[in-house]
Amino acid sequence: MTLTKKIPTIQDVARFAKVSTATVSRALSRPETVSVDTRERISQAIVVTGYTLNQAARSLRQRTARTILVALPDIGNTFFSAILDAIEREAGARGYGVLVVNRFAGDDSGRRLQDYFLSNRADGLLLFDGALALQNLLALTGEPANVPLVMACETIPGAPFHTVRTDNAYAAEVATRHLIGLGHRRIGHLRGPAGNVLTVERETGFRTALATAAVPLFPEWLFTGGFEMEQGVAAAEQFMALKLRPSAVFCANDEAAIGFLSGLRRHGLECPRDVSIVGFDDLAVAAHSWPPLTTMRQPREALGRLAAAALIDLIKGKPGNQVPQHTVLSSELIVRGSTARAPILHLANAALQQ
Amino acid sequence: MTLTKKIPTIQDVARFAKVSTATVSRALSRPETVSVDTRERISQAIVVTGYTLNQAARSLRQRTARTILVALPDIGNTFFSAILDAIEREAGARGYGVLVVNRFAGDDSGRRLQDYFLSNRADGLLLFDGALALQNLLALTGEPANVPLVMACETIPGAPFHTVRTDNAYAAEVATRHLIGLGHRRIGHLRGPAGNVLTVERETGFRTALATAAVPLFPEWLFTGGFEMEQGVAAAEQFMALKLRPSAVFCANDEAAIGFLSGLRRHGLECPRDVSIVGFDDLAVAAHSWPPLTTMRQPREALGRLAAAALIDLIKGKPGNQVPQHTVLSSELIVRGSTARAPILHLANAALQQ
User: Fold this and answer.
1) Bridge-partner residues for A67, per DSSP?
2) Alpha helix ranges (H) inside A150-292
3) Which of B55, B27, B59 is nearest to B41 (CA)?
4) Partner residue opposite B81 with nearest CB, options A77, A112, A229
5) Is residue A208 in a domain?
6) How many other CB atoms are found less than 10 A from the CB of residue B26?
7) What average pLDDT score do residues A293-314 get?
8) Whole domain around residue A253: which residue ranges?
9) How distant is the alpha carbon of residue B267 from its chain centre?
10) pTM for the complete prediction?
């Protein structure tokens, strides 16, 4: 037999491996039904003929890791505890293990991600970290790797991936409207970390609510923040340095809100007497902090469970999964003691401003 | 060739597989140096001859998962966030992935644990869950599985495993002595979950401190508790129902302490004016709760890092690892606003009691 110069076909592979084309096909789609011996021979034939090598190599490699890879931006953030719990339950019930990695964004080559799939340690990726370069993700999900991917919570707007998330902009709007409804007209926002999609979405919702109610926003009422308690404490210093302070602050998450509260207290300010505060997430501690925190409850159990289910469906090639599907969950306003009616004094001040 | 009735040897395997004994030996110790074909033949020969089957099967299976399995009792408990973070960093730096599983104790057969190793998905087990039956763990670490195991935080006293933990009894003693040093003579303890080794150790340290200082302990001052916030809230109800209440309570962990504080507040009690409270762990939120929580700081980063390092050393067969090694870390008393001097009134009451 001589090798042809034209694009090699499955017939070339079959001829070279001395098996039928049906066997080659079977070895590619369901390798476990073909003997190791035959598979080896087909594998060699593929290499020699140059038959769409990558795809074939990938198909030959059995997907038997029965493991999903969960990539988190910050495993130390307690927001993820309940989510990981739900992922582990859902995956476990379906016979899948859960590999956890942290801060992939620090690896800008994307190679560390790829390695997990090249070495067949995971069957798919559940990505909670929106900071990864889109090109690296496309390289992962495209030919030849074809890694099943679901993005959760932090998504990349417009990217062609399955997503499971909450409507952050709308939830931020609801949180801000709650403050407006209490009579507050001087409302600040403690921002999330720079460059994060959640930061952008939550600030957008905050601005929408203010604009809709014609409540003015001063740039100095947008505090540099983050998602960590210590960043909330630091934002309290910015707050204290203001000449005209807001009477209410919507914080980008609960951890920052708890830190902000703690920082204000060090300066003798009391919540909600001096400032009303709204958080975001409803961590377990929100109900037991002092004062108990008004916040937007994110359905963390459902986020974890549905994200894991979506990825496993994708891995198993469930029909209807060719087109990216988007699951958007709602958050719920939980009113507790950290928000109160705006004091008359503040309203008078606000009137003075206008 | 006929099979002998005597205990089969490596020669029997070699003869049956039509290879040299050197090849059999190589296939067992370094399977990657032998062709798949030959390995298959040797594998069959092992089965047919009955040659110390299990050990051989295990050796044949390559340890290439480059993954450690981390088993947690409750992934939803934020205590583990910082620990998981440290494990992931240490393992990642050494080229290992981290598989996370939760609540293995619910599976009393131990089969779910075994499956991870039989299917070659992990190279070793980092166990934070002390509730597993010792016999299942011994089955895992003994012949033929020989799974490398390190127990962390929750250990099984006297079990022949490597351990990384803190000295819980001593730390509880330090926490209780802090209360005695503030003049408290009516001191209660919010216990951890029943049947947990940490519960026993922390209560032991509490009792030791009281006994040493000749401070009396009334059984009704031992509150039924747990490691979760809601259990702390429930314990506050037990506290409120008492006729003679302690002036200070040592709580088995921070989450319970925060719930306990929250529960007391609902009844109008103030900490530390009415009750001094000490926690255990020093979660990030302890510094920012109200009042800021006095607690025993557990070195969570070091616990995670050293436990992962110990397991990977064990997997790599680092010399000196034949005998179980025990790493015991210290906890540190962090004094914050939740503890204060005992009111004179309480001292008088205590005197009245005696």
Assistant:
1) A97
2) 168-181, 197-212, 229-240, 254-266
3) B27
4) A77
5) yes
6) 18
7) 97
8) 168-299+333-353
9) 35
10) 0.80
**pLDDT score recorded for residue B80:** 94
d(Cα A172, Cα A166) in Å, to the nearest integer?
A: 11
Quick check: A12 pLDDT over 90? no
In chain A the beta strands, taken as DSSP E runs, fall at 67-72, 97-102, 124-127, 149-152, 162-166, 187-190, 222-223, 248-251, 276-278, 295-297, 326-329, 332-334
Residue A98 tokens, joined? 């859960």
| List of chain A residues whose C-beta atoms are within 8 Å of the C-beta of residue B257 | none
Compute the distance between CA of residue B323 and CA of residue B161 in angstroms, rounded to an integer: 8
Give the distance from CA A128 to its chain's centroid: 3
Least Cα separation, residue B132 to chain A (angstroms):
18
Tens digit of each residue's pLDDT (9 = 90 or more) over B302-341: 999 999 999 999 999 877 677 899 999 999 999 999 999 9
Asked if the structure places residue B55 within a domain, the reply is no
Contacts 24+ apart (CB under 8 A), A17-26: A17/A41, A17/A42, A17/A44, A17/A45
Q: What is the distance in angstroms between the CA of the first residue and the CA of the last residue of chain B?
A: 89
List the structure tokens of B302. 């070091």
- What CATH number has the domain bearing residue A236? 3.40.50.2300
Chain B residue set in contact with A, beta carbons under 8 Å: 36-37, 40, 65-67, 74-78, 80-82, 84-85, 88-89, 92, 97-102, 112, 116, 119, 121, 229, 232-233, 255, 258-259, 261-262, 265, 284-285, 287-290, 292
> Helix, strand or coil for residue A86?
helix
Q: A81 CB contacts (<8 Å, ≥6 apart)?
A: B75, B76, B77, B78, B80, B81
| Spatial distance between the Cα atoms of A18 and A14, rounded to a whole number of angstroms | 6
The average pLDDT across A196-213 equals 97
**Within-domain flag for A111:** no
Name the residue of chain A whose CA is nearest to B102's CA: A88
Phi, psi for B13 (deg, rounded to 5) = -60, -45
Count the residues in chain B. Answer: 354
Cα A104–A110–A116 angle (5° rounding)? 80
Give the DSSP H or E segment for B249: strand B248-251
Helix/strand/coil percent split, chain B, to 5 = 45, 15, 40
Q: pLDDT of A254-299, one tens digit each?
A: 999 999 999 999 999 999 999 999 999 999 999 999 999 999 999 9
3-state secondary structure B314-330: HHCCCCCCCCCCEEEEC
| Domain presence at residue B249 | yes
Look at chain A and report how many structural domains it folds into: 1
Q: What are phi and psi of A163, to 5 degrees?
A: -135, 150
Contacts of A87 in chain B (CB under 8 A): none
Q: In what order do the strands lie in the sheet containing B124-127?
A: A326-329, A162-166, A149-152, A124-127, A67-72, A97-102, B97-102, B67-72, B124-127, B149-152, B162-166, B326-329
